[in-house]
User: What shape does this take?
Amino acid sequence: MGVIVQKFGGTSVGSIERIKNAAEKIIKTYEKGNKVVVVVSAMGGTTDELISMASEITDKPDKREMDVLLSTGEQVTIALLTMCIHSMGYKATSLLGHQAEVKTDSQSGSARILQVGKEKVSKLLDEDNIVVVAGFQGIDDSGNITTLGRGGSDTSAVAVAAAINADICEIYTDVDGIYTTDPNICKKARKMGRVSYDEMLEMASLGAKVLQIRSVEFAKKYQVPLHVRSSFNEEEGTMVVNDDTDMEKVLVSGVTYNKNEARITLKNVPDQPGIAAKILTPISDAGILVDMIIQNTRSTGLTDFTFTVPKTEFFEAVELSQKISDSIGAGEVIGDENISKVSVIGVGMKSHSGVASKMFEALAHENINIKMISTSEIRVSCIIAEKYTELAVRALHTAFGLDTEE
Amino acid sequence: MGVIVQKFGGTSVGSIERIKNAAEKIIKTYEKGNKVVVVVSAMGGTTDELISMASEITDKPDKREMDVLLSTGEQVTIALLTMCIHSMGYKATSLLGHQAEVKTDSQSGSARILQVGKEKVSKLLDEDNIVVVAGFQGIDDSGNITTLGRGGSDTSAVAVAAAINADICEIYTDVDGIYTTDPNICKKARKMGRVSYDEMLEMASLGAKVLQIRSVEFAKKYQVPLHVRSSFNEEEGTMVVNDDTDMEKVLVSGVTYNKNEARITLKNVPDQPGIAAKILTPISDAGILVDMIIQNTRSTGLTDFTFTVPKTEFFEAVELSQKISDSIGAGEVIGDENISKVSVIGVGMKSHSGVASKMFEALAHENINIKMISTSEIRVSCIIAEKYTELAVRALHTAFGLDTEE
Assistant: This one.
């Protein structure tokens, strides 16, 4: 018995049949004596259809109107799901983002939730309703409809859970939990029983696409336990929780990879104070996100300056770098699109040493050359040649003892 | 130069191409120096698709949720039309029903507009925006989304026009105006240049489906001139205005018909005070709308009591009538589904006599028997056998001098 938020993604409500299936899960939870709030995405494919309609009108649709358009997707789902719950004999009420008091900033298309009111939802729960909330959408100060960007319904769910102080937020999806690595490239990947918020944050940002990163930030901030599980079976999935709970203290919890970065090197940069800012400021002013940065001091007074950018912005970044190089008197600009980043992640490494060296050994053992290295408290990442990605992931998965026993 | 409300129905925004066409019309009006508010319906077919999705879930969808579902249709249109106007280089902002402050009662699926605020729309107009409002939808006192029922966008348009004191409300549709009768059954039907609110009210309720009746009531109440015209050409349509404007004072402006009624007669009803109420109260308690009622006094102390009901409710009404007849000691109940109502309408007849007798003569001349008669200040209606409908309409159209000259 408690207050439970259940989130169903686009695949989980992708057809009338699946909506009925979701309704049954919801009612089962309600019948156990829980108060239930449901947060849903648009039916799978709907958002793409709407985007394609807009693109028939113009290449650059107005962002405010795009939000008005896209937010209809979730609106259709909440109406259908709520009437379905009704037809099964239970009280239910749907709420749009603004009705559920989901307040956001005014950044159309990628708005951030500022606050979620609890009055309306709590009142409906107290009146014995199952409450069905449209994910992905909110309202700004001026009353404009906003959307949170792809995957935003996860964040809606966690934000609503935080607002009403829910005991748990269940994320129903088309996978059955969080895996130690991508099961598509590593057959020995294992479903994790638990993972910490911090590990999940690193995994989300590094390419495991199960949860939107912002939803994990929210869950951590407001201490909302998440349960990521399949909407197509009854099995337990993965709990995302604080790392001070009784988690097995493994050194490394997971291995991730990201093929969406590219590397740029400026050769023979004059090694002067402030030179890094001179290079990176124009890049970030152009709205290009820089990830890893390496600068080696050399005795000659010249240095090579290397950084990574998203592949989609590679050409723009190379062009810009050429101009920067000319202006600061540096040398050749070398770009490399054929790279990927592999990372090992684990809260356990905070208290252990040797993770990095173990990683380097494992890669060396497969004759994989490391081009760049970066680390955080709970992560070590290496840039390698893209073609070795899968091999590297499998080698690291084995080296850190993550493989399933067969 | 002035303030103009333009309403585009489902057919007029039924495809991306037609939305672009509507945007061009809107911009042309704006370029003439007018302030323009646009009210739109869902793209043709959308509402039916949504209804069909709901019917896959349940036979009796919850009405509140049905409104949440259906209101997405107009939301898609306002977003697409507004981004289209944008892409053509003009400022435009879309507003949902609740954003445009369209307040309604709580009657889901057939809500009535109580009030329309003007602040938001006026502010946007003052900032030089073309304002695009979702028709058909509003919000009730508790913040629930409501819809106005089929054709509701007409009413939305007129209500918004009234609120902002617009100079005119243009209704763009797939016909090019209001005709003296149905052109499908009478080749000599003429497009009217002008028609009065009162005549239009009689025509709308009698079967001319161009304008929702409630929109005409609104237009009359708030003195909003309507211009019904085609969205596919530039021709003038029909003005719907007060009858004290310089309208040609013709005796009869139009001929209408309605095949959707059926007739029920209770024979040998005891002719006592209050007997009509005893018969009709149970009928209206069952939610059946009674149109015409005839009771003839006879010398025997018995009378025949006849009334008409919508064909869809004929069987229920007959069954009910049988029970009523038993309880009041009346005789046989006779039903007739094969009837239709033909009417002649005209504000001119207020000041003329002889319209009724001219109508009866014209019908008699075609050997059409009249089964029932009813009149209002500006209308005479006759119930005839359904099979004579088209013949009767053409005969009356000719008799009252409405035929086009060929």
Remarks:
- Chain B has two domains: 3-174, 244-406.
